[in-house]
Amino acid sequence: MTNSTAAGGGLSAPSLPIRGEFDRVYQANQPALWRYVQRLVGDGDVADDVVQEAFVRLLKRPDLEGDAARLWLFTVATNLVRDRGRTSARRQRLLMVDPIAQEPQEPIDHAIERRERSAAVRRALESLPQRDQQLLLMREEGFKYHEIAEAIGVAPGSIGTLIARAVKRFTETYEPVER
Amino acid sequence: MTQHLDEGVLYALLDDELSPVEEQRARAHIASCRECSASFQATGASSTLLSGGLRLLDVPRSAKPFVTPAAVAASPRWSGAALARAAALLLMIGGAASAAVPGSPLHSWLEDQRAGSEPGMATTTVAAPEPAPLAVTPAAEAGAGVAPEQGVLRISVSGAQPGLSVRVVLTDTPRGGVYALGADSSVRFETAPGALAVADAGMTPLRIEVPRSASDVSVTINGRRYITKDGEELLLENGTRGGEVTFEVAE
Question: Is B92 helix (H, G, I), strand (E, B) or coil?
């Protein structure tokens, strides 16, 4: 893989040796981090910006790599989402013309149904406290319980119970729609 | 009086988070306790419902490369997101129809903004992966998921009738899974670390998801191995390969 940097630099000299590791971390984590943020905020543009900012901040932490970098990125991205104020972002998003995306050969009624079900999931997810949304989405991304515990600041032994309660609340809202 | 398993323990068991001793104890209890067995099944069903629901939130990912901090600083006033939102307002005022027509200048301009092609923005050449496909979950389905164990994923299906339609796809998620489309209540699922067994598949079409991260994969149906993973592709027994493979169970 070839790397190039903007003319004129911009990365401080001490950061340059870690570019190879940074690119590896970027490639390994960017798709999952984008999916996580997009699920959290429901806005691809916001996800673009948050993920970009999280990786910019990672450049200042050359000590982080592997799983530690992954957990740090997700935690930072979550904090960035919180700081931005998700509600205002979504309100702006509602103003946009958002055509129903059809898959190839997918009938329009199926596309509409999929969109309605997607909206039901969004409502169910947003009915949860932000901490519960974070732990469910992090679990979905394959984080171990001790990592989730570290990210949300609770004891690792309580994660199973917290997940059970959060899933129950989610399904109570979402399941009737599915039936 | 029997001490039933806590819901948190059931989730920890489902997520492979118990120690070997705890897991053995929990499985032994479930085997002997009808109530906890039912609770464990319900836990798996809720978890599957959650996973399927969250996949419905996914949209095609924009293929933006990483922008270096210098380029960010040099970017004048608008981020890509701000430009897109401004474009949306223009659309509402000036006519959404024009933007919706492929080939129209406004449409092309919007596409350019979404691709992050603002002039003066230098980028690294970090390649962005292909956009994730939209996951379409039928109105009713049953299924189970499991994470590979040290890269190994074994999926075994039994009781499948000849002609059963099976679609296997590679996914970017960390967990694999088998989903019976149509929620035939007779289909049963059982998981163990790195393994997933499906019984009484019958004629219920199956969708099988294989994480790209798994290195050693096999999908066996009625004792016959149909799918393996060869490098970054799925390999069907007849030599067909790709990121998605569809086939029917043979006689």
Answer: helix
Rounded (5°) CA angle B251-B171-A110: 80
Q: Which of A117-131, B38-52, B90-104, B176-190 has the lowest mean pLDDT?
A: B90-104
> Is there a contact between B6 and A122 if contact means CB atoms under 8 Å apart?
no
Match 């799983």 to its residue by tokens: A67
Of A46, A139, A161, the CB nearest to B8: A161
Length of chain A, in residues: 179
CA atoms of B66 and B128, how far apart (whole Å): 9
Chain B residues close to A117, C-beta within 8 Å: 53, 56, 137
Cα(B55)–Cα(A39) distance, rounded to whole angstroms? 9
% of chain B beyond a pLDDT of 90: 30
What per-residue string of b and e applies to B25-44 under the rule 16 or more CB within 10 Å gives b? ebeebbeebeebeebbeebb
User: Structure pTM?
Assistant: 0.56
